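Handoff note, outgoing to incoming analyst
You'll be picking up this chain. Sequence as last confirmed:
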Amino acid sequence: MAAVAHQIPTTVTDRQTEHISANRLHLHEGPIDLVIGAEGLPDAISEAYRRATNRFDGLLASLVGELATLRTPVDAEPSEVFGPVARRMMAAVHPHASHFITPMAAVAGAVADEICATMSRVNGVRKIYVNDGGDIAFHLAPGETLSVGLVPVLVEARLGGSVTISSDMSVRGIATSGMNGRSFSFGIADAVTVLASSAASADAAATLIANAVDTDHPAIERAPASSLDPDSDLGDRLVAVDRGSLPPETIDAALSQGEGFARDLFERRLIAAAFLSCEGHIRTVDNFYTNTIKTFLS
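Most recent structure output, in case you need it:
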């Protein structure tokens, strides 16, 4: 998800289900907004959509029931959670326990993972993607591929790169974070996109890498997260709310800090690749031999 802290309301709103087309389904409740696509045998796709709809029912309510724990920063001994989505969230953030992070940093990716896993159990479905606000989980049968465009600025539709994932790769999730996302960020990145083994893992890593793309400069405006949202799991920690014009050397320093953090996660095999963008400057962390990420900008 494109943010540091992801908010879930304490009450559950009406659920909406809509078939966008023959091979796309829209599921929406509260802050969860899923666009789902599938390819395969027609009957298999229908069954996969039926299972996705059934699994979505009550999913938000189960998260609300564990919200206090999910808003608590993780440490070396993570708190016990019970719902399957909550467990996915906890598993995704636990490798990062040495940094400030709450399970909410992985909520969008974890929801996408859960729905995708439910659908992938249907025989005859070749390809599935579950897009939760830009964080995507996917299933690929042998021989299948998925291409995704990368944006250098979250609030713009302009592409700055692309990535193609094949079934023989370990990547099954992609997520984007940044200072102008749906929630708050400590850093000043316009966008950080991460590929990982799951959408929840990508979500958590993108959050932390975006936090790391940071520097001190008078043109950067910050405010306590609690002053912007009293329910934020970030409390009184300062988040970036605006960024004026920065000199190139300042942007370079911020991106270098984020790139170093991403490279550490890459070397620990917590991510497969990362795409970092700030003020039109791009950095990538990728496998030299495969060059997964193709950039359009320098």
